Amino acid sequence: MSAVHNADPAELAKFGDAAHRWWDPESEFKPLHQINPLRLAWIDGLAPLKGQKVLDVGCGGGLLAEAMALHGAAEVLGIDLSTKALGVAELHAMDAEVANLRYREVAVETLAEEMPGHFDVVTCLEMLEHVPDPASVVRACARLVRPGGWVFFSTLHRNPKAFALAVVAAEYLLNMLPRGTHEYGRFIRPAELAGAAREAGLVPLQMAGLSYNPLTQRYAIGSDTDVNYLLACRRP
Known about the structure:
Blueprint lengths: L8 H9 L12 H17 L6 E5 L5 H8 L4 E6 L2 H13 L5 E5 L2 H7 L4 E7 L8 H11 E12 L3 H14 L16 H10 L3 E11 L4 E5 L5 E7 L2
Parallel strand pairs: 1-2, 1-4, 2-3, 4-5
Antiparallel strand pairs: 5-8, 6-7, 6-8
Helix pairs in contact: 2-3, 5-6, 6-8
């Protein structure tokens, strides 16, 4: 699938329409605000970010990209195809005076043609379930990272438990997310993602789950990969 077509206009419009609320910790992006420190710590624990060249694929409004820049990365590039989300990300970075962070509206496949092997760390979190061809994104991420570099993915497991919690509970019962945020058929089983990573030339090294406790209203990273999960890979 070409880079031009590996995007869903409806998905871009959905997130673009909500872009002005991206940095509101009480908006529909509240879960991202809550899990951002956990994701950052997990990534940094495996691939220390200090002094590294980092790419954040599908950066949206810039929550993770900005956090990685402030955490000590030498340079961070966030890319997305949502013009509105990138505008919000750029404005927030400007207000926060984050000098080592920039953004581009470009498909990851296109960037892979321009800058192969340029980055020490590539992250692609909460994005694969929103594109028509996730394997194409995985291949592009593998091409963008230098030999020995790290690539991190996160997405949603495709199973009944994930449907019950990530769609029915989160979107319809608890109203944690707007209805229609996720399409269950696009969820990706861990074995499928690991297989796509291997086919792209990456070596999957570690997987972790991201779980939510509705009683404490807190997220935690652990071994339960039944709903949300993260996968860490390296390029040989």
